[in-house]
Description:
The protein is of the alpha+beta class. The protein has helices at residues 30-36, 43-51; strands at 19-23, 28-29, 56-57, 60-61, 68-69, 74-77, 80-86.
Amino acid sequence: MVMNKAKTPRQETNSSSPRNVAVRAVPIELCQFIKFGGLAESGGEAKQLISEGLVLLNGVVETQKRKQLVVGDKVKANGHVIVVKLA
Length: 87
């Protein structure tokens, strides 16, 4: 019998209330931050969201996967907003 690995549940938030995501160092790449912040299951999914124009950075569509983010940057994807904070 093969057992499937349970997926880690994503934290549900209201899209109108941004969630702070603490990172150890900045700058951090957009695709890494989306994955780390739980807006995508994998780096590949994060890159796909970005390339399809489904990610907003500070209210503007961002298509650069390796865009460098700094403290205070707001990223919106999949109806959720996360903000870069230092740990």
